[in-house]
Specification:
Helix content is about 30%, strand content about 20%. It is an alpha/beta fold. It has a domain of about 45 residues. α5 packs parallel to α6, α6 runs parallel beside α7 and α7 runs parallel beside α8. It comes from Hermanssonia centrifuga.
Length: about 425
């Protein structure tokens, strides 16, 4: 009896997902048939990476998808790299409709990454705000030049979006879009659960991004939030945003840049985060400012904890403190800190399960194991109450170059030759890295 008729297509997909990299196992599987051969080949396109100038425009790729049956339905992860991080003059230009149409042509797409592109902002018509994809869950932006409204014009097209990540996003002029009563801005019905707002835009990323987001999509569904503070100047926009978003937050990640200094402005900055409103908060990570390449004294950076810890909800279960210090200099830089006070503040969280100290060294000056052992010994001797409760954990990493951080490396590559027009060459499956 043919399994092709008795098993639903979803079972076929799951089997091929697990076995498509292992051709002998796929051939020997008793549930497979020769009729699955074409399907198994298409599964090589689950993860796709497109690079400029190989892909000249997103519209080129969208046209290709419409002209080729079968491939679009298998793509789950798409990365579009407009330029590298080495100052290349070449850059991909994208539009709201171009991104929306491309994602809409991929009915099974879960993750879309856009990096190194100039993202044009144009006053969108109501037609462009119609939903284009009911499968996209995660949207990542890195090294982008655009405006907040262009981002949320696009996000509004993906009602199933759950996660939005931005890093190194820089605003273009004009940042603020003039109000036009004949083109009301719709509020997208998106239940975003995870948001990361990274660095960028000459220190005013949060001031521009958060207000537009609050106007365009609901923020009360957020469960995980990551914010990057690059300077000590208080941000009232953060206070207004957190008044809506704090109630249901379960995970919060705060990254403080090297320009953060301990002064009255920093105190106001911390107050604007509204820790007291985060009643459901369970997980907190704090990346402390300062490293060996700056003049900022690490003792002052750890003093930020004196401002943050007393405001936290007693429901905290996981706390991570990240700093950038060479293990060999721990005693010199942190020896004078009031460790009894830090130990008392953290030990006050009765539900705390783990305190993770994450150290990042600027160089591999000593082996990883030795560095981790030295770091562990240093903190265990100073955080005695936490050590006694066996709550301490330690992580140690050598520094990763910025251009290599958070850049995924997809398994397979797709290339669309562009020679002044759209290439429609037949699909080649002779290689493990297929070409289009």
């Amino acid at each position: 009896m043919s399994t092709q008729r008795t098993l639903p297509p979803e079972i076929h997909d799951h089997i091929i997902d697990y076995l498509h990299d292992d051709k002998p196992a796929l051939a020997n599987c008793s549930l497979t048939t020769w009729g699955w051969l074409a399907t198994s080949r298409f599964h090589m396109f689950r993860v796709i990476k497109l690079s400029y100038p190989t892909i000249h425009t997103l519209e080129t790729f969208t046209e290709f998808l419409h002209s080729t049956s079968g491939i679009a339905g298998y793509i789950r992860d798409l990365s579009v790299l407009g330029s590298d991080s080495k100052g290349s003059p070449m850059q991909l230009t994208v539009t709201v409709s171009g991104i929306a149409n491309c994602v809409g042509a991929l009915p099974g797409l879960h993750t879309f990454r856009l990096s190194g592109a100039w993202w044009k902002d144009g006053r969108s018509s109501s037609q462009e705000w119609l939903p284009r994809s009911y499968s996209l869950k995660r949207f990542e932006l890195q090294r982008i030049f655009t405006t907040p409204h262009a981002i949320f014009d696009t996000v509004s097209c993906f009602p199933t979006l759950e996660s939005l990540h931005t890093e190194c996003v820089f605003w273009t002029s004009p940042v603020n879009r003039p109000s036009q009563s004949n083109h009301p801005v719709p509020i997208a019905e998106i239940k975003l659960q995870e948001l990361t707002v990274g660095s960028g835009s000459s220190y005013n990323m949060l001031q521009r991004f958060l207000p537009v987001m609050r106007e365009r999509i609901p923020v009360s569904h957020l469960r995980s939030l990551s914010l990057d503070f690059e300077q000590s100047e208080p941000c009232k926009e953060t206070d207004e945003f957190m008044s809506y978003a704090a109630l249901h937050l379960e995970s919060l990640h705060l990254k403080f840049g090297n320009n953060i200094m301990m002064n009255s402005m920093t105190e106001t900055l911390v107050e604007n985060i509204r820790f007291s409103s985060c009643k459901a908060l369970r997980v907190l990570r704090v990346d402390l400012p300062g490293d060996l390449s700056s003049e900022f004294h690490p003792t002052e950076s750890w003093s930020l904890l004196y401002l943050i810890l007393p405001q936290l909800s007693p429901t905290i279960q996981e706390l991570t403190i990240s700093h950038k210090l060479d293990p060999n200099t721990l005693q010199a830089h942190l020896g004078d800190l009031d460790w009894n006070m830090v130990d008392d503040l953290i030990s006050g969280f009765k539900d705390l399960r783990t305190l993770t100290v994450s150290a990042e060294s600027p160089s591999a000056s000593c082996s990883r194991d030795i560095a981790k052992a030295y770091t562990s010994c240093f903190f265990e001797q100073r955080l005695l109450k936490l050590h006694k409760r066996r709550l301490l954990r330690f992580e140690y990493n050598t520094r990763v170059l910025a251009e290599n951080r958070n850049v995924p490396e997809p398994t397979y590559y797709a290339r669309i030759p562009y020679n002044g027009g759209h290439s429609r060459r037949p699909l080649s499956l002779a290689s493990s890295k297929p070409t289009l």
